[in-house]
Amino acid sequence: MFETVIPKPINRVSRRRLRVCSECDLLLALPPLKTGEKAECPRCKHTLVRRQSNPAERSLALAVATLIALALSVAFPFLSFNISGIGNRIELTETASTLISLHQPLVALSVLLTVIILPTVYLLSLLWLCIGITRGKPLPNSQLIARTLGYVTPWMMADVFVIGTLVSLIKIVGMADIELGLSFWTFCTYALLLLLTTQSIDRDWLWLALNSAPKAPNSVQIGQSASAQGLAGCHTCGLVNRLSEATCTVRKHPYRCLRCNEPLHPFNTINNQTTLALLAAAAIMYFPANLYPIMITTSLGDSQASTILGGVLLFFKNGDWPIAIIILTASIIVPVSKMLALLWLCYIVKQPASALSPLARVRLYRITEFIGRWSMVDVFVVAILVALIRNGSLMSVEPGAGALSFTVVVVLTMLAAIMFDPRAIWLSARTTTVNSSSLHTSLSKEDPHV
pTM for this one? Predict the structure, then answer.
């Protein structure tokens, strides 16, 4: 039995504190936060705000350090191998350029985008924003640039590329002498710094610094669904908008945020058609991804095609259990589990009762959304081996037809998770589960600043 929350008046709460949880549509008020504290939704436990000390200076310093590490990673040799006096040395960018020369431009583009291009765009955008904020006057087009950060973040996969590199090294370390170039170490540093940079951003504070003028509407009730009150929270800047005031003339996006002009996504009813269509496309592409070889290995003139499952079995046969488990998990278990989990969530949101509570369902969704990107490990392994092992008929690796299909599967499943609306999980619960004391905390003090 869920606890019903009595609506609370907001006459003592600054309208700047009002937020709508993007994962359960609950309207609430943020409590005063100190440095190092975070605010969670009392119903679904989604992190709404995470405060940092000196956020602009902190993000600026991390972004500069990350760009330096990336520049060093591109400038110096990445990996080299030697077998019987014959070997090869590659730079980081060759993992993509070699794929292009072997007629796999789409796979090459996915590697280049996720590892170098999108992180560079992200870091330069962050520099632009932080420089403007630290000088007390945002630079031109800062709001437009800030809108792009949330779209770029899920597609940056430098950390996944590090794991792919380690898997590649384990695969060939027994047959050749491996040398790690300076770029390898700077790239590991770059991946760590990029992760710290993304975590350093306080999106709520950032938008208040860029434009604090718009405020949430009057006469609203916290502890209730925002959509039931004709409200919608902006998923980009966090501003609570009244839909009647945010109407736009563009038919495709009839509502836009009053602060950042981003399209609003008011929750009206369960609509999973887009997610189901993407899942169907991913399931179709998953068959050629496993039936066709993902790479072709040539050794002493003898070529051998290897599918994903065939590679896993080969690792098990050779006694490389850890690497076999990694590939099995990332390339087979994760994609299949993700598709099944999203399919089940699309079905269960329309059921009034379920063995899992709404909180358990939304946690399943978060896990599903998080793990999807790690399936790119196999694609990165192919990119690294293809670039590194290029010795003609003596020993070489080429990408197979399954590489492109598997890349498409990863992209489609990630898009399916992004398009799934977790607010539908709480609509099926019908009642609200909220700790009333959390709402009292939010109502304890009037403060014009968050």
Answer: 0.85
